[in-house]
Amino acid sequence: MPFCPKCGFKLQANDNFCFECGNPLDPYKGNNIVRPKLTTNLASKKITCKDAVINAINEIKGDASSNEIINRIYTKYPNKPWKENSIRCHLIGLSVNHPSAKHYPHLFKQACLFTPAKGRFRFYNPETDEIKNGVHTKSNPGPHREMTIEEFDKLPMKRVSSSERAIKKLTELTSSKDFFNSCIKSFYDNNPFESRFREGIRNHQDVIRVYRHNQDDYRNLLDKEFFLEQVYNTVKSWGMNSRAAQMVDIKRFKEGISSNKGLLYQLHKYHLNTLNETDVNEVKKLLGTVFSNLRVMEGPSQLVGNSKTLHHLLPDLVPPMDRTYTLTFFYGNTNLNSDREKEKFLEIFENIYHICLKLKLNESDLGEGFFDTSIPKLIDNAIVGYMRDGVSRKSQKD
């Protein structure tokens, strides 16, 4: 098997260039598919995420979905720290024709994959794979040509960090009380819940009414079986007991709340709109402990289930959170490592507090809408309205 005369990289049939150093080569007879070497974990070289991606596709020997590749990587390297999102980024960045590869210019020189259909990847074959768009074309041969700074600056969309996107959204959402209220209006005008989740709305309103009636005797309220069952059924009706998400049984749910009763009692005296900076630090410590102790869902991910449960136990303090709207608003995607859920929960809580503080929200801002039940829920409504209105504007533009 030939090797690159410049760097010693093992070559495959009909390679026009070396995948390691970019050295141009004279193709030799054999298999047309450009297939990089299978990286082994030598003492002199650690396995990187790029290596893992190439190794996985080498083993699959054909095109595969991103999920199939990710599962193969996690099976082959169970102790490696790569996150799912990082693997997806490498799949995109290593593709010679993926429309989003432009966001990963540092991977252009190593590009060796081809995207034959949306969400699927295989090795690039220069003999049969035509690249219609992008920098890598027949006039600019090979996936190894690096994009120049001038070309990168001319791209229609440059990559923006999640934090920058979140700051932009937060700045716009809190630009004025009028804009905030317009987002709430959008929530009700484009509401996805009223027709589909009538039971969830009714259950939520019932729990809030019971809480308001008994909030002066909160410790005893947490001992009431019917109240805990109401909270359980409400969270369940909010999509937390579907095929994709399974709640723990009601017995374990009640035990989890009872074991945190002392912390919940300390937290119930705090209201989001009356907190100061000192209070926020104390509240975050208490909420972090409760979040770690509470287990609402059967699977590893607890953020959504815990936040929806805590919202109904502490409606004036904790907002409900979900992946589609909350995580996308703050982080730009719905992916979240379960090991960092507590950290992100507290980050989102503090950002919600700053929204409340900047807009000086109080009970007089609550309207007559079926989900205008507390200030944290009001902010959640505005975030959902903001996100859905953005989708509507984009659809109209398209």
Mean pLDDT: 79
Helix content: 40-55%
- What structural class do helix, strand and pairing data support? mainly alpha
Which spans of ≥5 residues are poorly predicted at pLDDT below 50?
A: 27-45, 133-149, 151-160, 391-398
Q: Looking across the biggest beta sheet, what order are the strands in? A: 1-3-2
Biggest sheet details: 3 strands, antiparallel
N/C terminus separation: 51 Å
What is the string of SSEs from the N terminus onward? Answer: HEHHEEHHHHHHHHHHHHH
Number of domains: 2
Strand content: under 5%
Tell me how many strands there are.
3
Shape: elongated
Q: How many alpha or pi helices?
A: 16
Record keyword descriptors for this entry:
398 residues, mainly alpha, 2 domains, 2% strand, elongated, disordered C terminus
Outline the structure in words.
- The protein has helices spanning 49-60, 66-76, 84-93, 149-153, 162-173, 177-189, 198-214, 218-221, 225-240, 250-259, 261-267, 277-293, 303-313, 323-331, 341-359, 375-397; strands at 64-65, 113-114, 120-123.
- It is built from 16 helices and three strands.
- It has a three-stranded antiparallel sheet with strand order 1-3-2.
- 49% of the residues lie in helices and 2% in strands.
- It has 398 residues and is mainly α.
- The model is unreliable at 27-45, 133-149, 151-160 and 391-398 (pLDDT under 50).
- The chain has two domains: 47-121, no CATH class; 157-393, no CATH class.
